[in-house]
Amino acid sequence: MIADGDSLLAAVSGGADSMCMLDLLIGYAAEHSLRLGVVHVDHGFRAESASEAKYVESFCRERNIPFYLKKIKPGSISHAEEAARDRRYMLINEVANANGYAKVALAHNARDRAETMLFNMFRGSGISGMTGIRPVRDMYIRPILCLDRGEIEEYLGEKTIAYCTDATNLGDDYARNRIRHHVISEAEAVNAGSVRHMNDLADDAEEICDIVWEMASEAYVKLVTHDPDPGEYRIDAAGYRELRPLVRAEILREIIRDMTPHLKDITREHILSIDGLACRESNGRIDLPYGIRAYREYDQICITATSGNPARKTIPDAEAQSDIEDLNDIGDETGILLYDGRSMTLSLIPAAGAGDMSELKSADKYTKRFDYDKIDKPVSIRSRRTGDRIVIDEAGHEKKLSRYMIENKIPERLRGSIPLLTSGSNVIWIIGYRDSYAYRIDETTQRILEVTVINNKLKGENDG
């Protein structure tokens, strides 16, 4: 989870879980030279939320820990769990990006993971939902996922650390609360170790999902083609039918992940309906949530986005920055959160002895390598802006980004949703399309910046 010298932002609500995590991290940071900061998100739903923010701030101030407060304007979001969670993650990510924290610590515990497993199972998740909450997912770590609530409260009592209690967690208004108060309590009546056993099962499910994902990724490359215009995926039906059902389902989920903000409303029945198209002798059509349509056309399964698909919305104008000058030594790595939940890792690798020059230049659609010393710092990830330009050939000829998109027939509806890696108004990489010649590797390159876009939801996690 954590390496010596890491920069770590802890998300602290002031509740028992997060206060336990914070105290443990303070001790660990002192021993391992961690740069530790704390972010608190005030949702403004409850009258006592302001005092909770002040408590966390005071706790940090007494220990000289940088504290960042983010407030959600009352009425700007619904009280629904998912809306609050999405805004909370967005604000936490903003603080991490703006202040150079490479990792974010979240205070989920073993009971949270068991609740998430059950919640996913009840709503029709596949085996990926049985992983519950993963201990490590890209830049997110969960240091106390191995602890149950009883252990956490005992620890806080021994250390005489106060914590806040959210009254909304005591009622049954939310589905997770009902699972926590009734289902898990009944499970523990049957077996006191049920939460621990569910976490063991989640670990096993995680291993299985990783194996299935690797098999699906290999098959995806062979069987799936993607046409950005009109946003259509095509699967070779004959090759698809030869795969095991779990692998087929993972391929379908991977396609839908690319087309939607999340898989929340995509059930097992939806996946099986699309899968059934491969076995039909005649053509057919299925309409899914998020404006997705799947149909059989001769020897192919086609999955396409209709005009109602939310993936066609433009990305926010906000930008995430990374000061890559912090990458001083070979092997250093940092990250940026993208607007859609994906992330980008930037790492420094040597040019000398790293391989054949042509091998270094070659990379897949979502991994690119650049001459680190040619890039003006910092770099940003953002949507397009007036004045953006890209170098299109070795002679250094520039072209306006708008003109490039028109000439390369990128549909107008998609242009605002394509993330860009930029240095000022200079486009380094149109992610998913092409990179600039200005930063390409040549015989003079000493240090290489390797940039990889990662789909954080690739393995089906739903944190809740």
Descriptive notes:
The chain has 464 residues and is α+β, with helices and mostly antiparallel strands. The chain has 3 domains: 7-189, HUPs (Rossmann fold, 3-Layer(aba) Sandwich), CATH 3.40.50; 228-311, Uridine Diphospho-n-acetylenolpyruvylglucosamine Reductase, domain 3, CATH 3.30.465.60; 320-454, no CATH class. The chain contains 13 helices and 21 strands. It has helices at 16-32, 49-62, 81-99, 110-122, 149-159, 175-190, 194-223, 237-241, 245-259, 268-277, 357-361, 401-407, 412-415; strands at residues 7-11, 35-42, 67-71, 103-105, 136-137, 140-141, 224-227, 232-236, 285-288, 292-297, 300-305, 320-322, 333-337, 343-350, 367-371, 379-382, 389-391, 398-400, 420-423, 426-430, 447-454. The chain has a 6-stranded mixed beta sheet, with helices on both faces. A 5-stranded antiparallel beta sheet has the order 7-8-11-10-9. α4 (110-122) packs across α6 and α9 (245-259) crosses α10. The radius of gyration is 24 Å and the shape is globular. The model is unreliable at 310-317 and 456-464 (pLDDT under 50).
Short note summarizing the structure:
The chain is an alpha+beta fold. It has 13 helices and 21 strands. It has helices spanning about 15-30, 50-60, 80-100, 110-120, 150-160, 175-190, 195-225, 235-240, 245-260, 270-275, 355-360, 400-405, 410-415, and strands spanning about 5-10, 35-40, 65-70, 105, 135, 140, 225, 230-235, 285-290, 290-295, 300-305, 320, 335, 345-350, 365-370, 380, 390, 400, 420-425, 425-430, 445-455.
